[in-house]
Amino acid sequence: MGFKRYVEIGRVALINYGKDYGKLVVIVDVVDQNRALVDAPDMVRSQLNFKRLTLTDIKIDINRAPRKKTLIEAMEKADVKGKWENSSWGRKLIVQKKRASLNDFDRFKVMLAKIKRGGLVRQELAKLKKESA
Amino acid sequence: FPFPLTYIARLLRIHISERKREEEAESNQNSFAAMAPRKTPVVSRNPQLIRGVGKYSRSKMYHKRGLWAIKAKNGGVFPKHDPKPKAAATPVKPSKFYPADDIKMPLPNKRKAKPTKLRASITPGTVLILLAGRFKGKRVVFLKQLTSGLLLVTGPFKVNGVPLRRVNQAYVIGTSTKVDISGTNVDKFDDKYFAKAAEKKNKKGEGEFFEADKERRRASCHKTRRMTRRLSMQHCLNRLRQCQI
Fold first, then answer.
1. pTM for the complete prediction?
2. Could you tell me which residue ranges the Large ribosomal subunit protein eL14 domain spans (chain A) (predicted)?
3. What whole-number distance in Å separates Cα of residue B62 and Cα of residue B47?
4. CA A73 vs CA A8, A23, B236: distances in Å
């Protein structure tokens, strides 16, 4: 019991509201009770309300308000991108994005793939049933 | 001496209109000669300072246009050309009948209908989704736009049972998927191909005879259609198979 993800300098967070929705961002400084200074390699450093952030498990090792270059180096060292894309949360988001950007033809291909997969599953199930029967 | 600007402007305007009239008269004179049509467009040698006011004066323009050279070539006078002999007017016979009342003639309408503007997303080879009609929901390959504005479209028939068909652009969604149909020849198909076979006026043939005639016609129609369809569809199919999943 208790909180596991804390707001601290170096905490990686996901923006969940606003223009930069869906971006991974590092908390670089705390402004006051409600706001943090936030930075990402492809973004101008800006302040965000905590309400617009969702904290992740990832934390990187930086000092308070580092330079952009230092920040990017620290992010590379901690492999934020890799950790994120391998986490189940990150993977889910990637799949969501892919689904949203599907073509009509892509959806057709997905349908065929699903049917194929379903067929294979059912084959295996039938085999197992036969064995147990 | 200080004349108001408007007065000067008015003088200049008269000046220029006079000059224009002279130029027109001269051009009319010259047109009577057998001149070759101009290859370069007519460009004024007198740039406008303001609308209606040219940069060069009358005498300057005379020199610029080379009217002195034309005169010199023609011995000090402007060349004069005799007017072309007018073709003898055919004698018009006075009409025998004049209607008593004036008939109201409708105003002439020379408008020509253009085929509907094709959406930018629809190019030959685009896969379309049909939204209405017998084949609604089917994905179909777009071949070309006919002169009536309708889209010529095919399943192809072997793939999903949609034959060569015409479809209105409004009842179609264009997808971003394109099939390469560069080889298929669709020149043969146009709106006339889809016109109903004209029913022969058969006074004698009533009942059975009439039906038999129609059937025969329909069958021959089908054969030719099938052949043409096959040739173009084969090509289309090959392309589709190439880009299969």
1. 0.56
2. 45-117
3. 15
4. 19, 18, 54
Point out the residue among A104, A109, A112 whose CB comes nearest to the CB of B175.
A104
ipTM computed for the complex: 0.72
Could you give the CA distance from residue A74 to residue A85 in angstroms, rounded to a whole number?
Answer: 17
| Residue B23, pLDDT score | 67
CA-to-CA separations, A44 to A17, A65, A68, B101, in angstroms, rounded: 17, 13, 9, 84
CB contact under 8 A, B175 and A103: yes
Euclidean distance between CA atoms B187 and B5, whole angstroms: 67
Q: How is residue A63 written in tokens?
A: 């000092």
Q: Which residues contact B226 (CB under 8 A, 6 or more apart)?
A: none
Cis status of the peptide bond prior to B156, with omega within 30 of 0? yes
How far apart are the C-alpha atoms of A85 and A58, rounded to whole Å? Answer: 12
Residue A64 one-letter amino acid: R
Q: What is the per-residue pLDDT across B104-120, written as a single tens digit (0 to 9) for each? A: 888 999 988 888 899 99
Q: Which domains does chain B have, with CATH numbers?
A: 126-198+208-242 (2.30.30)
**Measured between alpha carbons, how far is B16 from B29 in angstroms, rounded to an integer?**
20
Instruction: Quick: pLDDT tens for B50-87.
Output: 999 999 999 999 999 999 999 998 888 888 888 888 87
For residue B126, give the chain A residue with the closest CA.
A105
Distance CA B206, CA B210 (A): 5
Measured between its terminal Cα atoms, the distance across chain A in Å is 46
Nearest CA in chain B to A113: B245
A110 contact B CB<8A: no
